[in-house]
Amino acid sequence: MTTTDPLSSGGLLLPPEEGAKMYLKRLATVALAGAPGDPLYTSGRVPHTVTAIHHHAGRCDQSKKRIAEHAANRADWTRRLEAVGFSVELGRACGVIATLELPPTEAVVEPYGAVEDHTEQVTFPAYGVGGLVRRLFGNSGFLGCVVTSSTGLPATPTKTVDQAVVSLALHWGLPHHVSVTRP
After folding, report:
1. Residue 178 · residue 105 · CB < 8 Å
2. Are 176 and 23 in contact (CB under 8 A)?
3. How far apart are CA 24 and CA 157, in angstroms?
4. pTM greater than 0.90
5. Do 109 and 180 meet the contact criterion of CB atoms below 8 Å apart?
6. How does pLDDT run across 49-63, given as a tens digit for each residue?
7. Does the structure show a pLDDT above 50 at 31?
8. I need a surface site. Which of 37, 40, 46, 178 has the fewest CB within 10 A?
9. What's the CA gap between 31 and 10, in Å, rounded?
C-alpha cells in the first residue's frame, strides 16, 4: 500500500486514493494501524498537524495504572508517527500532536478540447491521476468551475481554476499544497 518516499521528510509517500480527502489523516492511519490504546485521531486545528488521543470516560490521571499505560501508548504512537516522517510533541492531557510539512504536489494544467468548451485538463504527474476543470458561464458572467476526476467522479466545485486544482488534489487524497505549471 505504501512506497518509500523521495520526500525530504524521510517519510512515506501514499498512492492516490479517490475520495480520500486528507493526506495527513491517511498517513496517520497507516502509522497508527494496530497501535496500542486504539487512538482516536483527526486533522489538527493547525495546518499540517494530526492529533491523536486516548478515548475513555473520566480523566487521564485517575490512577497510576492509567498514567503508566498512557505514557507507554504515547511513546509507541510517537515512534510510529516519527517512522513515517512526522515530528511529534505531547498534546493536552493524554495525546500527541504530530506535524508534517509536505512539499507541494506538482500539477500540470493545460487546455483540453475546443476553446469554446472552457475546459482544462489537470494532471498530477508524480501520481498519474488528475481530472478536468470546466469553467461555467451564465447570463451574469462567470459562475465557477465544475471539477471531475479522471475516472469521471465529481469533485468539489470551486470559484477559480486554481481552487479547482486544489479540489482535485484533495479528491485524490494528495498533499493539498499544490504547485501549478501551465505549459
Report:
1. yes
2. yes
3. 22
4. no
5. yes
6. 888 888 877 777 778
7. yes
8. 46
9. 14
